[in-house]
């Protein structure tokens, strides 16, 4: 299952708070339809029925079912090179 670093947890919490996402909402990750292997991120008020829910503290990440398989052994982290707001990267789990 996808895991989150402390930095990713803090970034997701900050993003959802700033955007006014209601309690129970979070960041949703889904594979991009136009480009296989790319992912789309969206702040949403709740997961879809079949989403995998990853919780870390107050942060919630919802992963689309087929994307959940692709991300099963990865960790979501923040990208220190991001210049405009938080960027995210996926790395293999240790």
From TrEMBL:
Please name the Gene3D superfamilies in this protein's record. Answer: HesB-like domain (2.60.300.12)
Source organism's superkingdom?
Bacteria
Q: Which InterPro entries match?
A: HesB-like_dom_sf (IPR035903)
Matching entries from SUPFAM superfamilies are given as: HesB-like domain
Q: What is this protein called?
A: Iron-sulfur cluster biosynthesis
């Amino acid at each position: 299952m996808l895991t989150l670093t402390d930095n990713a947890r803090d970034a997701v919490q900050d993003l959802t708070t700033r955007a006014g996402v209601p309690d129970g909402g979070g960041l949703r990750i889904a594979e991009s339809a136009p480009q296989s292997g790319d992912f789309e991120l969206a702040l949403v008020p709740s997961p879809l029925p079949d989403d995998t829910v990853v919780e870390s503290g107050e942060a919630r990440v919802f992963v689309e079912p087929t994307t959940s398989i692709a991300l099963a052994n990865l960790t979501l982290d923040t990208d220190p090179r991001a210049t405009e707001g938080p960027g995210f990267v996926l790395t293999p789990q240790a």
